[in-house]
Amino acid sequence: MYAIGIDSGTQGTKALVVDAATGEVLGRGAAPHFMVARLKPGESEQDPAVWVAALEAALREALKESKIDPAKVVSLGVSGQQHGFVPLGADGRPVRPAKLWNDTSTIAETEYLVERLGGAKSYIEKLGINLAVGFTASKILWLKKNEPGNFGKLSKVLLPHDYLNYVLTGVVRMEYGDASGTGLMDIRNRRWHSEAVAAVDSSLDKALPEPADSSLPLGCLKTEFGAKFGFKKVLVSSGGGDNMMGAIGTGNVAPGVCTLSLGTSGTIYSYFAEPFSDPEGEIAAFCDSTGGWLPLLCTMNVTNTTELYKAFAGGLTNEQLESLAGEAPPGAAGLIFLPFIDGERVPALPNASAVFFGLNRSNFTRSHLARAIMEGTILNLGYGFGRMKELGLRPSEIRATGGGAKSRLWLQIVADIFQTPVVTLQEQEAAAFGAALQSIWTWRGEQGENVSIVDLAETMVKKGTDIAQPNSGRIGIYSALQDRFNSLWRTLRSEFQIR
Hints:
This protein is α/β, with parallel strands linked by helices. Helices cover 38% and strands 20% of the residues. It is built from 17 helices and 24 strands. The strands form 7 sheets. Strands 1, 2, 3, 5, 13, 14 and 15 form a 7-stranded mixed beta sheet that branches. It has a 7-stranded mixed beta sheet with strand order 18-19-17-16-22-23-24.
């Protein structure tokens, strides 16, 4: 028996064919997405039809590579980019293109909604989560204000993965994890918050699907869709947002396990069995897609900084960068890099610039600069990671994914700064893999098996060979650097605002 995992992201769709008994990945496929062109600054949109076409193309490629009998596929799960807004009309079609997570044209709407609920602290007290500009709520209000004709056609509010689920099954539903990223849900009680919903529109509650438990199957794949691929009866799980599916795909389904993604941006999140809320709103307080909660920290600057340095230093390869940085000692002889190349989300410094601090004759070298850049990205994550620990995180292991996870030195820096073991995973497509595992969990439950997602993940999520243990001799060095890093950005905060 086999399972399918789909990850529909911003850049494209990826598909995996997975052995439902062992978790082995047998086939892979991918297809690109295209943005809506000629938009205004800050707008980011895609036609949902692009996602459907990419899903079909990626799925065909994965099935071809796997060489399996499609009739033996029993389950399918979908992961999707969070926070997007698909306005569905009464005819079951989107009334306009979807506004994506990185659409920042809704700043005014975000500020309006926060003020309607009494300000940021009040918003967090009421919903357990802060309203970020990228969240879905402000996009709905944007539609109401800017395109009243389309708002009048609105029948259902869907997120990207919900829309794909609808195309596959004909069922309209949201699950707790992705729904928690709308900015409209009371994350502690996992239900829509009536005051937040009414602040957008008095009749919006009729367009919001009732959030459902993520362990419940969505339904079965439509016969006409399955026939395109030779499928028979395929159970479709609830799916979820890409971070929620990434948590499952990395085995982050029990307290203490953390997932760290080192890509252009940096993301770290961990499973909580009880509701998590940050009174300052720096840590996004999401629900997960297994029945728990998933506080998440996101920074904007990781491999974007090293890519710039590689080009500046004459076109270094990743291997050359790592070798060069390895020539400098831990702590880069006191040189600190504030990596705010693209501003920053946490700490909240949208207008910040990058800074090298502590240059002297001994550390003004290519190797010290390289190491300081790599360390600075983790010290930046370290601020938010420290906030998570203050709020109850007790990390036992960090599971690293993303391009930066291929660097053995970067993994060691993470282990040393966070004082937590860091491991890699055999399967790096965590979101698509997590969607497949969730579907297997759901399917086995429907067969009457009493299997937990924790047991399933322990069996099927396999660690790689890279393991970085924290070096206790570096605690003092990195603890002092973390304190100085935090002090520096606070000291320079007023200067950043005049950028």
